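Trying the structure run again after the queue cleared.
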Amino acid sequence: MKQAEFDGKGSRIRWTEAAGNEPARVYVHGLGSASTVYNAHIAARPELAGRRTLFVDLPGHGISDRPADFGYTLEDHADALAAALDAAHVTGAELVAHSMGGAVAIVLAHRRPDLVSRLVLTEANLDPYPPVTAGSSGIASYEEDDYVENGGHARVLEKVGPSWAATMRLADPRALHRTATGLSRGTNPTMRHMLEELTMDRVYLQGELSGELPGREGLEDAGVRVVTVPGAGHNVMFDNPDVFAAEVAGKG
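Done. Tokens:
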């Protein structure tokens, strides 16, 4: 396990790492998740062997610190991720990022293009104010203190089901709420606009069971390769690991 300070106050973002060839692959988890849980089984596959691999837990999640006075906006998370990559002496990385983590990866690529050579995004949040069915909106519908102190977190854990709850219960509730609120608010310019303006190799994976990706044509016109993954929902890496690993390897 490795770590780097991210807030100027001693708080640490942490990651686990496997040695290998550059460019590094950096896995970034979604809201209330953890990178190793969602991606270790992918990174261990033969077609992905031999590359330097980092599994980063964003602030407030997994093994990283969770300062109470941190903002947890998408920009805050992107800056913390940049601190981790700088400390690890990573440049030109391939970011493999899921859901909220995909939004963070887009912001990072926009702010620090030196750190990113390729984006593989899985159902990344591209627009502010997602549908109320999205996990981020359900959390953000609470006031912060109601979520943290008056049972909101426990109700969400019951609602999301055992798989997501297994990692969400490891996240700090206040950090989780602020992250969800920041995700719902989005960025200016939007994550979608940032993604369309980037020039690096960009792949967007959409689970077939999640329905058609809104604005797909605009993304493709901007050079984003959009792939509909058969038989998969939001968690493509679990639902169709063969296609997911092929796309990460660049062999899709």
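The CA atoms of residues 109 and 116 lie 6 Å apart. Worth checking whether this holds up in the mutant runs.
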